[in-house]
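Q&A FORM
Asked by: J.P.
Topic: structure of ABC transporter, ATP-binding protein

PROVIDED:
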Amino acid sequence: MERTSVGASTTVTTPLVCLTGVRKAFPLPDGPPLVAVNDVSLSIDAGTAIALTGPSGSGKSTLLHLIGAIERSDGGSIDVGGQEVTGLSGRALAAYRRRVGFVFQRFHLLPTLTALDNVMAPLIPFRTDFDKAARARELLAMVGLADRAAALPSRLSGGQQQRVAIARALINQPALLLADEPTGNLDSQTGTAIVDLLLRLRDEQGTTLVMATHDNGIAARCDRALQMRDGRLTSLDS
Ligand SMILES: Nc1ncnc2c1ncn2[C@@H]1O[C@H](COP(=O)(O)OP(=O)(O)OP(=O)(O)O)[C@@H](O)[C@H]1O
Ligand SMILES: [Mg+2]
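REPLIED BY: S.T.
REPLY: Here is the structure written out as tokens.
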């Protein structure tokens, strides 16, 4: 985290993510559109871990999709690292998506690829300024799966699959990692190990984490917990 001391008691942190008045509505077949994210403004400092909590349907996944430019907002501004994300298209959009890591509840590994090939999958084929397999192996080692590089996902436990998915999310060295209920399909012990791993990335690499979770214990381990309800942020704890 970049911190600049400007006085005895004041510390300035650099925001990595700045949302202003962000809105997303989904058209419904009958009736008015469903407003999934409603006028959300927030600022996330670089190198911090943020939990996004709130009941089912409150807009957590939609907000993560907007920040990761998986979905397009209907209004407002999303600034990530000084880049306006709304309105990106074509190659700029593809390049932005590659710079953000995304981890899903259901892992979303490609079933016919080995763990190693899954980790390498997001790399652009023609980029050859580093050894792709070596970097993927390093990441697998970092998540404790050095010896399972050749395994297909079907041969891995849920926790191991999620660790492969985290390694895949890190292959392009993202400053921002978005995780949508990354422990939602795991038992609590395995889930704790996954959160340990995510928080280690914050501590050791300064990765900024935004993690949707229903688990208050996980939220308490983050630097800040934000709560959503009916598409709005209802609490800012700091
Ligand atoms: N593609 C879509 N089309 C229509 N409505 C959608 C779509 N995606 C989400 N919604 C609606 O937007 C609202 C917010 O959904 P979202 O998935 O963001 O909630 P969530 O907080 O992630 O819930 P959960 O905790 O169950 O994952 C819900 O009412 C949902 O039904
Ligand atoms: Mg969700």
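FOLLOW-UP: Confidence is low (pLDDT under 50) at residues 1-9.
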